[in-house]
Design a protein that fits this description.
Length: 696
C-alpha cells in the first residue's frame, strides 16, 4: 500500500517517498503542488481509520500541534479529509533524529549536548504554556536539521490539558525507557513534570551513551526500577560528566513529580547556571563591569548556537547568535537575484525577499532555497567566510507552465524523450522554448507534436488518440522490416500495438512505422518500449524484466532485531519496519535479547503487503508427554531451550511465543526422538509426544 502511493497525487500533494512508519500512521515526503513546497504527510493506517480511539488520538495530535507556534516544534499546516482517510500536513525536516546521532557518535560531549537540550526545553516551555503535554518525549522524537536546529515531533500521545483539571486517563502510553513513574502506574495525574522526566532520561542517554538500564533487564524489571528502584548516577556511567551536571539530570529523574524541576524554564536556568560557573572556572576574566544575565527564553545556552531576536526571528534561529564585544563581529550577507522579488528560504522557512541584506555571524556552508512563481526553484549553498561582508547574485531560470489531458487515460506521455508520470500532467513546469511531445498507447496511433512554450501559463493541450484499425486484406502491402524481440528472462509474451506476437525470443515482419511493444512475463513487471521499423532493415528490442515486488512490514513488540534471509535489517526495532522486495519467499527472523527468537518463511505476493506482527510479550501453551516403547506414560524431566524447567511430563507449558527446542530426560532411559523445535505462535492443542527406550 505504502509503495503504491509513491508518484501519486493526493489532495494536491505529490507523494515523493516513504519517510517512515509509526504506531498510528505512515509518514511521506511530498510536494505541495500549488505552493511548490516540500512537506511531510502523516497518513493514518487504513486499518486504524475505523478505530475511534485512534481517530481521536490522530485528531488530538493535529489539534495539539495546531496550538503551537515555535521554531523548535514541527509545524502543522493542515488536517485534511481525503479518500484515503485523515491526512496531517506538516513541516518537512531535513535531518536526523537524536537517536540516530547517538547511534552514529555514541555519548555526546556536554558542549554538543547542552545546546540541543536548551532548544528542547524551549519547545517544552512553549507547549506547556499552551497546556499541551507531549507524553512520549524520547531521542527518536527529536529531529536535528542540517543547521543544528532542534524540532520536537510526534505528538501522537499529546494531551491538551484543561488548566483547571489534572490530565487523568486510564490508558498507559509512551516508550518504556523514557516513561515517568506516574506513566508506568497508569498515567494518573500526569502533567508537564512527566515530560521533564522524559527529557531528563533523554539527556542521561545523550551524555552516557545509553539509558541507566541493563541490556538483560526484562520489561517487568525496568518498570520496577522506574517506579521503585534507584537509578545509577550519571557520573557513574560516564566519569567525564561533572557532578553538578549529573545532579541536574538526576533531579529531573526524581521518583515523585514534586522533587523534580517544576517547569522547563526552571531546568533551563539550572543548566545555564552550571554552564556559566563552568565557563568562569575554565576562563578567568579581568572584566570588572557587570551585566544582567539574559533570561533563558532569550538565550538558548551560554555562548550558544541560537538566539531569538524579534526583528529577524527566523534568520537568527538559522544563521547564528548575535555578537557581543568578545565575539566575532556581525557581517552583512547581501543576496541579489534576477529577477528580484525572490523569496529566500532556509530549510523551508522564509527569511525575506530579494534584494536582501542579512546580518550573520555563522561561517562555513549556508544552505539556501530561492523561489518565485513561474521560475524554477533554485536549491543551492554558499560558503560564508568568517567576519567578511559578502554579496552573492543568482539568476533564476524562467519556467513555462502547461497542463495536458490524454485519452485514453493510461496513455504514455513522453516529453523530450522522458516519460512523464500521470500525476504531473495537470501541472507541468518546463523550460521556455520548443519541446517534443509523444503520446502512445497499445492499440492506438501514436501522436507526436512539437510545442513552443512561453514564460508563465500556456494554454492547456488535450490529446485524443485514434484506435488502430487492422484490416485482413492488404492489397498494397508495403515493404516490410524485421523486428527481433528478446527478453531476460526469456519466455515473455509479445504484444505489438496490442496484438499477440508469441513469446520471446521472437521475430516479426512488420510494415514500416512506429510500434508500441509490450513484453509480459508472470512474476515480472511489464516492459514497454516504442520502436520504429524501417523497410528492409532489422530493428531489435531487448527487455530486461524487473521482478514484481511487494512490501514486507514487520512490527516487533516490545522490540527486537529483524533479519531477512539472515541479513540484519534493523537493530532493536520498536516501530513498524517496511521493505520493498521482489515477490517470493523469504526467511524472516526477529530476536529479543531476553524473550527469545521468532523465525518463519514468509511468502510475498506481487503488489501486496505482508504484515507480520511478532509480540514477544504474548504467551502460549504447549503440552509435553513421554512414553516408553510399550506406550506406558513416563514422568520425564522437561527441558526448554536447553534449560531444566523442573517440570515433569505430562505437563502443559506456558512459554513466550517464538522458536523453542523441547527435549525430555528420564534416568535409565534414552530418547528415541530428536529434540523437537517448534515455532510457538498460539496455543497448541495436541501435545508433543516423545518415546524413550529403557537402557539395558
Amino acid at each position: 500500500m505504502e509503495s503504491k502511493l509513491i508518484g501519486k497525487t493526493i489532495d494536491n500533494y505529490l507523494i515523493l517517498e516513504l519517510l517512515g512508519k509509526g504506531g498510528m500512521g505512515v509518514v511521506y515526503k511530498a510536494r505541495d503542488i500549488q505552493l511548490d513546497k516540500i512537506v511531510a504527510l502523516k497518513m493514518m493506517e487504513l486499518g486504524l481509520s475505523r478505530d475511534e480511539n485512534f481517530l481521536k488520538r490522530f485528531r488530538a495530535e493535529a489539534k495539539a500541534l495546531g496550538k503551537l507556534e515555535t521554531p523548535h516544534i514541527v509545524a502543522v499546516h493542515a488536517l485534511r479529509e481525503t479518500e484515503l482517510g485523515l491526512l496531517l500536513v506538516m513541516e518537512f525536516v531535513d535531518g536526523d533524529t537524536l537517536a540516530q546521532m547517538l547511534r552514529a557518535r555514541g555519548p555526546l560531549p556536554q558542549a554538543d549536548a547542552l545546546p540541543i537540550f536548551h532548544q528542547i526545553l524551549q519547545a517544552l516551555d512553549h507547549a506547556h504554556g499552551a497546556s499541551v503535554i507531549h507524553r512520549d518525549l524520547k531521542p527518536n522524537n527529536i529531529m536535528i536539521n542540517r543547521l543544528g536546529m532542534v524540532k520536537v515531533m510526534d505528538f501522537g500521545l499529546a494531551k491538551i490539558q484543561n488548566p483547571s483539571e489534572p490530565a487523568t486517563t486510564t490508558v498507559t502510553g509512551g516508550t518504556l525507557h523514557y516513561m515517568s513513574p506516574e506513566q508506568i502506574q497508569g498515567m494518573s495525574q500526569v502533567d508537564r513534570r512527566s515530560d521533564l522526566y522524559s527529557l531528563g532520561m533523554s539527556l542521561y542517554e545523550a551524555l552516557a551513551g545509553k539509558t541507566p538500564f541493563d541490556a538483560n533487564n526484562t520489561d517487568f524489571q525496568i518498570r520496577k526500577i522506574i517506579v521503585e528502584g534507584k537509578l545509577p548516577a550519571l557520573e557513574r556511567r560516564n566519569p567525564a560528566i561533572p557532578k553538578e551536571l549529573s545532579k541536574i539530570v538526576m533531579k529531573a529523574l526524581a521518583k515523585t513529580p514534586g522533587e523534580r524541576y517544576q517547569t522547563a524554564a526552571e531546568m533551563a536556568e539550572a543548566l545555564m547556571a552550571f554552564e556559566k560557573k563552568a565557563h568562569a572556572q575554565a576562563t578567568p576574566t579581568s572584566t570588572t563591569h557587570s551585566r544582567r544575565r539574559p533570561g533563558w527564553k532569550t538565550l538558548a545556552s551560554v555562548g550558544a548556537v541560537f538566539f531569538v531576536l524579534i526583528s529577524i526571528f527566523v534568520l537568527r534561529e538559522y544563521l547564528g547568535p548575535p555578537s557581543s564585544p568578545s565575539e566575532t563581529p556581525v557581517a552583512i550577507l547581501s543576496l541579489a537575484t534576477k529577477p528580484s522579488g525572490v523569496t529566500v528560504f532556509l530549510n523551508e522557512d522564509s527569511v525575506g525577499v530579494t534584494p536582501l541584506e542579512l546580518p550573520v555571524t555563522q561561517e562555513g556552508e549556508i544552505t539556501l532555497r530561492l523561489h518565485k512563481a513561474d521560475y524554477f526553484t533554485l536549491d543551492t549553498s554558499i560558503v560564508k567566510l568568517k567576519g567578511r561582508a559578502e554579496t552573492f547574485s543568482f539568476v533564476l531560470q524562467p519556467a513555462a507552465r502547461l497542463a495536458l489531458t490524454v485519452m485514453p487515460p493510461e496513455a504514455r506521455v513522453m516529453i523530450d524523450g522522458n516519460v512523464i508520470a500521470p500525476a504531473r500532467l495537470a501541472s507541468l513546469q518546463l523550460t521556455v522554448g520548443r519541446h517534443d511531445i509523444q503520446i502512445s498507447a497499445p492499440g492506438y496511433q501514436t501522436q507526436q507534436e512539437q510545442l513552443s512554450l512561453v514564460h508563465g501559463v500556456n494554454p492547456q493541450r488535450n490529446y485524443v488518440l485514434q484506435k488502430i484499425a487492422f484490416s485482413a486484406e492488404q492489397p498494397n502491402t508495403p515493404a516490410l522490416g524485421t523486428l527481433d524481440l528478446k527478453s531476460d528472462p526469456a519466455g515473455a509474451a509479445i504484444l505489438v500495438n496490442g496484438r499477440d506476437f508469441g513469446a520471446t525470443p521472437g521475430t516479426a515482419q512488420l510494415a514500416a512505422g512506429t510500434y508500441e511493444i509490450l513484453l509480459r512475463h508472470p512474476g515480472y513487471e511489464d516492459y514497454a518500449d516504442s520502436v520504429t521499423v524501417s523497410s528492409g532493415l532489422k530493428s531489435e528490442v531487448f527487455g530486461r524484466l524487473r521482478p514484481q515486488s511487494g512490501t514486507l512490514s514487520v512490527l516487533v513488540k516490545p522490540y527486537g532485531t529483524i533479519y531477512i534471509d539472515g541479513t540484519l535489517e534493523r537493530r532493536d526495532a520498536n516501530t513498524r519496519y517496511s521493505k520493498t522486495l521482489a515477490a517470493g519467499s523469504y526467511r524472516l527472523a526477529a530476536v529479543h535479547p531476553t524473550l527469545g527468537k521468532w523465525e518463519k518463511n514468509v511468502t510475498l505476493a506481487a503488489g501486496q503487503e505482508a504484515f507480520i506482527e511478532i509480540d514477544f510479550n504474548k504467551q502460549a501453551t504447549l503440552g509435553v508427554a513421554a512414553f516408553d516403547e510399550s506406550n506406558n506414560p513416563l514422568f520425564a524431566s522437561i527441558y526448554v531451550d536447553g534449560n531444566d524447567t523442573n517440570l515433569r511430563t505430562p505437563w502443559r507449558l506456558t512459554l513466550p511465543i517464538g522458536l523453542h527446542t523441547i527435549t525430555v530426560r528420564h534416568e535409565g532411559y534414552r530418547m528415541l526422538d530428536a529434540p523437537k523445535t517448534i515455532l510457538l505462535e498460539g496455543n497448541v492443542p495436541e501435545p508433543l509426544r516423545f518415546t524413550l527406550q529403557k537402557i539395558q
